[in-house]
């Protein structure tokens, strides 16, 4: 294609891929060997953790790859370094820097850039899918002619947590410095510079290095920007597309939808921005294809069949969220191996085990999953992030490894068993150190909290801190009165009346002073007369 061949910025990019080639290039299957099923339990737990990097391209990812390839090449059409238009574009950028105004310098060269927003539920594969696509392209290309420069093909930034446009600019300069070895952060990223000035320099640097596409992830964070920060940042990104000619991709959760459906909608229409909304997967052929591909990576001794009941439970407990599905499959395998080692049970994954694992280890996202089951969109909007689930999975694996023996222990106690016992005891101490402050914050007395933790640990050895909290909470709920709104009736029989505690004989005891006061004298006056409290004006008089 002549428009691609004659543009050095495009000619050095990898050629566009067919769907089949993209499917093979983007896939990231875990390392797997059927012989690993014979490994000891603690080694198989490490094998299972390989699934965290598992990626199976679906139709949405292939569509995104095709759209990205078209987007970046079309964005370079109007920025051909062999033409006079490119020189005028660079000169206009210098004028903007001199006048400290993004709109200065005119617009003598039309923009062919186009951008889009990718919105979807957390865990559906947006960021990971984009990362797999970016790996297909070099991030930096050096050109010796017709101009000596380092072309930055793509740059991915995370939106600042407080949505600050200034922080996004600083992050941009730092990323460019890390990639190119420049000092843009020191030159233009000083806190003394205004955000408008930073944006002008950011646009100029992006233009100088022929930035192919700017990806801003976690765009929902800019909802928290103070004042007009969110509007200013979005308008700046639109200016990059319309004026500078740099494509922009926004990635965010469903929490970003209200933001992008506001005033930014008109700007997107004017500049040709589109949007992709990835809903959670339906229980349809695409979902079944993914489950079947994933199900083959089993490290249990026994290969469990994928029955219709198992399929249904996998969908119910994950609600079509790929990341939740993979984590559930990982933890179910780990639990099956644990039961095989500790209880000599067959290492089998069935519907019952999946439900048990989901109930015990996925409490952090249970409100979100339940909201999805109900179809409650207002509730779903409150849970636009499931990243804490990753921490929970790591905790489950570390707890399991700390008490899982490296080999079966038969007869006498072996050194491995002794080391395992010591590690388990240490883990219990760590768990207790975590649980006691949490339970005390919930209002339990320290001594009662210690008793409840000891009971839970004795009844359920080896469980994580989060699981023990759930068990203790259930116990407290079960011990609560059936109808707490009704006060217990006091017994009227003399046999059940509690005898009054005799007062202490110490005359200086406050209770003795108050009980011995004369009729008509207030408790305060009695304490004042006994010298137990100061006269109100004593300090002032002194």
TrEMBL record:
Keywords: ATP-binding, Nucleotide-binding. InterPro entries: AAA_22, P-loop_NTPase. It holds the Pfam family AAA_22. The keyword Nucleotide-binding applies. Residues 491-502 have a biased composition (Low complexity). Residues 110-259 form the ORC1/DEAH AAA+ ATPase domain. Coiled coil: none annotated. One of its GO terms (molecular function) is ATP binding. Residues 479-502 are annotated as: Disordered. This is ATP-binding protein. It comes from Acidithiobacillus ferriphilus.
């Amino acid at each position: 294609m002549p428009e691609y061949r004659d543009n050095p910025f495009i000619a050095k990019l990898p050629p566009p891929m067919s769907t089949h080639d993209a499917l093979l290039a983007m896939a990231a299957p875990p390392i797997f060997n059927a012989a690993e099923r014979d490994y000891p339990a603690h080694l198989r737990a490490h094998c299972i953790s390989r699934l965290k990097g598992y990626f199976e391209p679906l139709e949405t990812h292939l569509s995104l790859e095709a759209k990205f390839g078209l987007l970046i090449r079309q964005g370079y059409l109007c920025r051909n370094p062999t033409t006079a238009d490119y020189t005028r574009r660079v000169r206009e950028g210098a004028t903007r820097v001199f006048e400290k105004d993004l709109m200065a310098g005119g617009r003598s060269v039309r923009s062919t850039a186009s951008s889009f927003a990718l919105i979807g539920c957390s865990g559906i594969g947006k960021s990971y899918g984009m990362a797999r696509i970016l790996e297909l392209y070099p991030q930096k290309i050096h050109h010796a002619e017709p101009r000596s420069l380092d072309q930055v093909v793509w740059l991915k930034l995370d939106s600042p947590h407080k949505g600050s446009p200034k922080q996004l600019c600083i992050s941009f300069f730092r990323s460019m410095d890390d990639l190119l070895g420049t000092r843009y952060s020191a030159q233009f990223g000083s806190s003394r510079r205004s955000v408008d000035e930073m944006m002008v320099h950011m646009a100029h640097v992006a233009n100088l290095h022929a930035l192919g596409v700017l990806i801003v992830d976690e765009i929902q964070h800019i909802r928290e920007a103070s004042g007009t920060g969110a509007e200013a940042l979005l308008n700046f990104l639109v200016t990059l597309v319309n004026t500078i000619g740099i494509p922009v991709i926004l990635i965010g959760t469903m929490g970003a939808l209200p933001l992008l459906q506001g005033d930014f909608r008109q700007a997107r229409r004017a500049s040709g921005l589109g949007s992709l909304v990835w809903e959670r997967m339906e229980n349809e052929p695409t979902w079944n294809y993914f489950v079947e591909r994933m199900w083959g990576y089993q490290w249990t001794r026994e290969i469990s069949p994928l029955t219709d009941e198992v399929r249904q439970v996998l969908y119910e407990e994950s609600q079509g969220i790929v990341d939740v599905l993979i984590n559930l499959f990982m933890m179910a395998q780990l639990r099956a191996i644990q039961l095989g080692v500790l209880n000599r049970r067959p290492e089998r994954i069935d519907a019952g085990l999946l439900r048990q694992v989901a109930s015990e280890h996925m409490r952090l996202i249970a409100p979100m999953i339940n909201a999805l089951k109900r179809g409650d969109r207002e509730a779903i909007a409150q849970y636009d992030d499931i990243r804490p689930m990753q921490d929970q999975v790591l905790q489950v694996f570390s707890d399991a490894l700390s008490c899982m023996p490296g080999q079966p222990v038969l007869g006498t106690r072996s050194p491995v068993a002794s080391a395992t016992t010591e590690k388990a005891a240490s883990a219990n101490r760590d768990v207790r150190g975590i649980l006691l402050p949490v339970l005390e914050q919930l209002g339990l007395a320290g001594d009662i909290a210690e008793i409840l933790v000891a009971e839970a640990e004795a009844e359920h050895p080896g469980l994580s801190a989060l699981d023990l909290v759930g068990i203790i909470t259930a116990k407290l709920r079960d011990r609560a009165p059936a109808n707490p709104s009704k006060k217990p009736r006091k017994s009227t029989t003399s046999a059940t009346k509690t005898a009054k505690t005799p007062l202490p004989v110490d005359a200086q005891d406050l209770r003795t002073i108050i009980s011995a006061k004369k009729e008509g004298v207030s408790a305060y006056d009695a304490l004042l007369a006994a010298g137990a409290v100061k006269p109100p004006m004593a300090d002032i008089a002194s």
